[in-house]
Amino acid sequence: MSGFIFQIPPRIVFGPGYVQKVGEEAKRFGSTAMVVTGRTATTRSGALDAVVASLEAAGLAVVKFAEVESDPSVAIVEKGAALAREKGVDVLVALGGGSPMDAAKGMAILMTNEGSIAKYEKEQPANAGAPIIAVPTTAGTASEITRFTVITDPEARIKMLITFPGIIPRVAVLDPELTVSMPPAITAATGMDALTHAMEAYISLRGNALTAVQALEAIELIGDNLVRAVMNGADMEARQNMLLGQMLAGFAFSNASVALVHSMSRPLGAHFGIPHGTANAMLLPPVMAFNRPACTDKMARVAMALGEPVEGLSLREASLVAVEALDALFMETGLPRRLSKFGVTESSIPALAKDALASGSTANNPRVPTQDEIEGIYASIL
Ligand SMILES: [Fe+2]
Questions:
Q1: What is the Å distance from ligand 1's center to 280 Cα?
Q2: Secondary structure (DSSP) of 217-283
Q3: Cα(197) to centroid of ligand 1, in Å?
Q4: Which pLDDT tens digit goes with each residue over 209-249?
Q5: Could you read off the pLDDT of 1-13 as tens digits, one per residue?
Q6: What are the boundaries of each domain within the chain?
Q7: In the CATH hierarchy, which fold is given to the domain comprising 184-380?
Q8: How far does the centroid of ligand 1 lie from the alpha carbon of residue 130, in Å?
Q9: Ligand 1 center to residue 267 CA distance, Å?
Q10: Which fold does the domain 11-179 belong to in CATH?
């Protein structure tokens, strides 16, 4: 086995009602906190009030920045960082889905480093970012525990991926009660994104012993609980297990990397606006069917993790069961199954495939695809 580096936040605070602990956690970093969140969802659900109340109860001064759009822009990151500097903010509290987390990570870099955010796509910042406490309200991206942020430059139509260990949140506070307000379609899409993280980390050529254990546990938790959470959002056990599953999937993929599903889903988001989780969900079964011959033993383990009866089956048979089980799970979520529903046509496939082939994640895939093979996978779900 080759060596590996494994990085996650130094402190994970996980449990129902634990949003109340945000203030105590924040106090360790100073006296002024800025809450970075979106415009509506966390206000409407009461999550923002809960976080602010906890911070104030712990004696912190609170600055609210409730302006983050989905796919946060360079401008919003610069605006938030300027406000944080002006107010003497000691710690950022990122509250919401992936977008507020991404925005806060960008702000954290600019609070401690010179220059524009675009510079740090290519070079590592000199200083660690300002401390972040990440409080997710969705269960999928696992941005609360990763070293990645994606910032959009709308004029240049560019999505910048910045990878920097200095933006891993210092504390992740995961409270399943905050995820209860997620509607079924978002629960399904974010949950399938998490399942894709776990699957891709497990079969990734960059996986290691730690990520494999976490990925398999994540697959089991998500397999058992995703459809339950979609059907009944108030099912607290399902919500808790989904939040745990997506976090474990996050530990796994942020250290083992993702693979061909993510390579192929990114162009679908960039060119056709297909939401990330939905695009991954559609691609997961056909990409895993393509990968299966190159990782038969792992796919057989996946069948077991998904609770399929595999006793007496050969590895090949069990691996085929896994592909069928992933497809059945996807179908039960009720997410769209066809790319044409989003305006994708046969003539757009070669350009999508070219982008997917050029993506860095493709090299982590256990079976390296050709352009023709990628086109064939897109065509199979057109
Ligand atoms: Fe993802």
A1: 7
A2: HHHHHHHHHHHHHHH-TT-HHHHHHHHHHHHHHHHHHHHH---HHHHHHHHHHHHH---HHHHHHHH
A3: 6
A4: 999 999 999 999 999 999 999 999 999 999 999 999 999 99
A5: 578 999 999 999 9
A6: 11-179, 184-380
A7: Dehydroquinate synthase-like, alpha domain (1.20.1090)
A8: 25
A9: 13
A10: Rossmann fold (3.40.50)
